[in-house]
Write a structure and sequence with these properties.
Layout (H helix, E strand, L loop, with lengths): L21 E18 L4 E6 L4 E5 L2 E4 L4 E5 L5 E5 L9 E7 L5 H9 L3 E9 L11 E5 L2 H16 L8 H15 L14 H11 L8 H7 L4 H12 L3 H19 L4 H7 L5 H12 L3 H8 L2
Antiparallel strand pairs: 1-6, 1-7, 1-8, 2-5, 2-8, 3-4, 3-6, 5-9
Helix pairs in contact: 2-3, 5-6, 8-9
């Protein structure tokens, strides 16, 4: 039987992960104080310090940040940070730092001579299911490719004063850096949250429609199942009820918007599917144990 030629001579269908790097920020700062009693975010982080002295604590492990390593932190990893010689407060944080590009050469020399660290950090998300990787801190030894990308970003950010708009080359350099680092993660760390394709498709739908109705009935209909049957399937696959999962994911998304946008609390409440800021604040406090306004103050860095 003749079929139209598509350009691919093979008849074997191939399926690839729907992988998308969503970069939230890329900054080059100086730090004199970096003492946080708890840091946990629903997105990935990359840290690189140009001098030794930074320390990350996770569970029973202490990572003394080395100049020949870059550090990847998985979403929702609860860790602590400090600069060597400083004490982490029992709660809250002590942060003293700012954009290096805003300093004059003389100011930069003075601050670094006083013991400040140069700190490159990148925040990004990958979407479902790749933001569900195993919790942890992943140090990676620098190779020449990584060193070249870091040097490029250091120079670019130094010359563009905490830029709001990246050019294409800088954007692709960040993407390339992220992808090369992600390649270092052992395949076993990529947790598959759902083995049932129906649940996976609904989770993908949820992540793209936080501001819309996400009732059990609507989602079950999209999965072509009865409401009760799909609710049971979802809980068996994910381990929590459908609405509890949606509530947590909406707040995760709100945390990202609070940290990386200038949207108001009212705007974020609407964007994440809450009827008003009061309902949003109540649910946010229930999950994060603080209010959205306090979260922005404590964890905006």
């Amino acid at each position: 039987m003749n079929t139209s030629f598509t350009g691919d001579p093979s008849s074997t269908a191939q399926y690839f992960p729907q992988f998308s790097v969503n970069i939230h920020c890329c900054r080059y700062w100086w730090l004199k104080k970096w003492e946080h009693s708890t840091l946990s975010f629903p997105f990935w982080r990359i840290y690189y310090n140009f001098e030794e002295g930074g320390i990350i604590e996770y569970q029973d492990n202490e990572y003394k940040m080395e100049v020949d390593k870059i550090y990847l932190i998985a979403p929702n990893t609860d860790y602590r940070s400090k600069i060597q010689g400083n004490k982490i407060p029992s709660e809250g944080y002590r942060l003293e730092g700012g954009s290096i590009s805003s300093l004059s050469p003389q100011e930069k020399t003075k601050i670094l001579s006083e013991g400040a660290l140069e700190h490159l950090f990148i925040h990004f998300s990958l979407g479902f299911p790749y933001d569900n990787a195993s919790l942890g801190i992943y140090p990676l030894a620098l190779n020449e490719n990584l060193k070249s990308k870091i040097s490029y970003l250091q120079k670019y950010l130094s010359e563009n004063n905490d830029t709001a708009l990246f050019n294409v080359q800088a954007f692709l350099m960040i993407q390339s850096l992220i992808c090369e680092i992600l390649l270092s993660i052992d395949e076993s760390k990529w947790k598959q949250s759902a083995s049932d394709i129906r649940v996976a498709k609904i989770i993908n739908y949820i992540e793209n429609h936080y501001d819309q109705d996400l009732s059990n009935e609507l989602l079950a209909n999209k999965a072509c199942m009865s409401t009760n049957s799909f609710s049971r399937l979802f809980k068996n696959e994910i381990g929590v009820s459908l609405q509890k999962y949606i509530k947590k994911k909406r707040i995760d998304y709100a945390c990202m918007l609070i940290t990386h946008t200038s949207m108001s609390i009212d705007e974020i409440a609407f964007k994440t599917g809450f009827s008003n800021r009061f309902h949003f604040t109540r649910v946010f406090h229930e999950i994060i144990k603080t209010t959205p306004a306090k979260y922005k103050i404590l964890l905006s860095f």
